[in-house]
Amino acid sequence: MDLFTAIRERASCRTYSNEPVGEETLMKIIEAGMQAPSPANNQPWDFFIITRKETKMKIYEESLRCKKGLFEKSGWKWLDSYQVGFLTDVPVLIAVTGDPAKSGADIFLEQGGLGYQHACAAAIQNMLLAAHALGLGSLWYTLFGQEEIKKILGIDDKRAVVAIICIGKPARGPFKTKRAKIEEKIFRIS
Amino acid sequence: MDLFTAIRERASCRTYSNEPVGEETLMKIIEAGMQAPSPANNQPWDFFIITRKETKMKIYEESLRCKKGLFEKSGWKWLDSYQVGFLTDVPVLIAVTGDPAKSGADIFLEQGGLGYQHACAAAIQNMLLAAHALGLGSLWYTLFGQEEIKKILGIDDKRAVVAIICIGKPARGPFKTKRAKIEEKIFRIS
To answer: Of B35, B41, B189, which has the smallest distance from its Cβ to A8's Cβ?
Structure first.
């Protein structure tokens, strides 16, 4: 698939069929992630592949707990109707973790220590594009507590879970949300 | 260009020719960035386009100041030989900023408030891929102080500068750095 087509069409998918994702396809998606840039080529990412129903159920429950807490803190009514059942339907979840020590020179900067997060986010974007080009839907998901999710997945304290990526055949859609006009987003420095 | 070719070939470029980047090309690259996902489609990004030599010089000087400070703090000898002259040679720099208030539900999470950084990083990755597909080199650059760079560019305190992206015709290379083997980076949750 053409790069610009993939970039333009890729959209968040929240309804998946339970058709399994083939191993070769999954590896292509992760390999795409691993081609992202990172500070001093530190490659701070690791990919935790989740396919077992029981583990998905635990993530789902953690997400419900998190959603309830958010609803109480934010008062955002839309959260109440936001369903996260796709977490158990989706054939594959990939927890993308980053190592905070692998942020390059960034760790010495005032605003620093985010290099590993940026690199992981770039890797995730590659993965979402790759999934789309391979006919799959995807979602960048972050509605979970850091400590809780690491406990569920058995991930050590040296890693941070940047996001959980849902990957599977879309049951319908996905539908691209609208973007601002470019004129609203660019400024020319004179 | 095929998506997987762009993902595989894209590499950091640190040597640019001074050939200008056409306006249409530049808009294509920014449009690609704007197609990235963001928390609740908040689109937290803005793009500050820098083409004036005087501004590039100021960024270069800020980068030298920052490099000196890093060298003192880190003791990393390689920093001494790391040249940043490409900041003045490169035809276009784009400062990608993010609005911390546009992180979605993330702001209520324990590890939260990073959603806008992730979205901007995803936008940047789209831009780097787009630049490559359009025959241009690019670099994700973060060696600057947050307050200092905002002062140079006249960017208000509500925005964070996530990175400065260099874009231009490569004078040579770029050469892709090696990646780990996939087996070193994946874990299967049982």
So the answer is: B35
**Residue A141, strand partner residues:** A164
pLDDT above 90: residue A76: no
ipTM of this complex > 0.85?
yes
Cβ atoms of residues B82 and B68 within 8 Å = no
Which CATH architecture is the domain A3-173 placed in?
3-Layer(aba) Sandwich (3.40)
Measured at the CA of A19, the angle between CA A16 and CA A24, to 5 degrees, comes to 110
Kindly determine whether residue A7 and residue B32, on different chains, have CB atoms separated by under 8 Å.
yes
Query: Can you name the CATH fold of B3-184?
Result: NADH Oxidase (3.40.109)
Nearest CA in chain B to A144: B109
Dihedral angle at the C-alpha atoms of A102, B103, A126, B20, nearest 10 degrees? -90
Instruction: Determine the distance from the C-alpha atom of residue A138 to the mean position of all C-alpha atoms in its chain, rounded to a whole number.
Output: 8
Q: Is A190 on the interface with B (CB under 8 A)?
A: yes
- Mean pLDDT, range B66-92, rounded to an integer: 89
The structure tokens listed for B94 are: 């784009």
CB contact under 8 A, B190 and A52: yes
Rounded to 10°, the helix A53-74/A146-153 angle is 170
pTM over 0.90: yes
Instruction: Report the gap between the CA of B14 and the closest CA in chain A (Å).
Output: 13
Domain range list for chain B? 3-184
| Nearest residue of chain B to residue A108 (CA atoms) | B70
The radius of gyration computed from the CA coordinates of chain A, to the nearest angstrom, equals: 17
Other Cβ atoms less than 10 A from the Cβ of B40: the count is 14
